[in-house]
Specification:
This protein is mainly α. It is built from 3 helices and no strands.
Amino acid sequence: MEKDVKPRFVDALRRNNDQIREDRAKTIGEDSELIYKRRIEDIELKIKRIAREQEGAIDISPLDRNSLTFADFDPESFVEKDIELSLKIRNLKIQFEIAKKRYEYLFGKNY
């Protein structure tokens, strides 16, 4: 059984330049692809979270169910925040589309 065991260290020393380059390219490519994919997913998640936050801001319930006043609602800050969130979403969507296209270009796969 001992003769079936291949000496990995000795084999590694015997590899030629092409084999070494191939192994390194494979490792770098796999790591880069995985990180790129994760970055795209992170951007997508940010878009969803900000969109939920924006939708949540529309829910302007009165202080209690018997009240008809919205005493703590500040229309100025609502508008400012809504525009800010809209711009964040727009910028993230642009990043998302660019990242997807670059991923497809760099790795030859559809995201």
